[in-house]
């Protein structure tokens, strides 16, 4: 299956408000499979459709349990279609976040520790669940993408600008090396 291209800051598409998914069909299921392949290859633990230039309310997450000695990580894929957060806990927790659209940049971001969410699964069935820990952080991070928000938006303007400049510089160097 061919991989999708992950767009990077400062691409303005990343600031787009994603539209709801209207229909769950074989084409969407194939796209979800390609999203997972792209995320695993990157490697990452979450990917929103907008990060591959598709402004739809769709995201995939797989925190992957650590691999057994000498084996592959145990995959636990999750698909969220038209997700919405119903409740955020008052308790907050900081995590060192990164993003496939902001490669090699990380920052401590404080978010609600527990969230309750509702979404459609790949069968079109409504689901609801409560998440904590890394799953909560990842879900909030990816839903932010669907609303045109990046994790760097939680930082000071100075830190945010520095990260974007580093990504742009790194991409220029990468592109230059590819030409040679």
From TrEMBL:
SUPFAM superfamilies: Peptide deformylase
Pfam families: Pep_deformylase (PF01327)
Stated name of the protein: Peptide deformylase
InterPro entries: Peptide_deformylase, Peptide_deformylase_sf
Principal EC category: hydrolase
Keywords: Hydrolase, Iron, Metal-binding, Protein biosynthesis
Active site: 142
Domain of life: Bacteria
Cofactor: Fe(2+)
Organism of derivation: Sphingomonas sabuli
Gene for this chain: def
Family: Belongs to the polypeptide deformylase family.
Cofactor note: Binds 1 Fe(2+) ion.
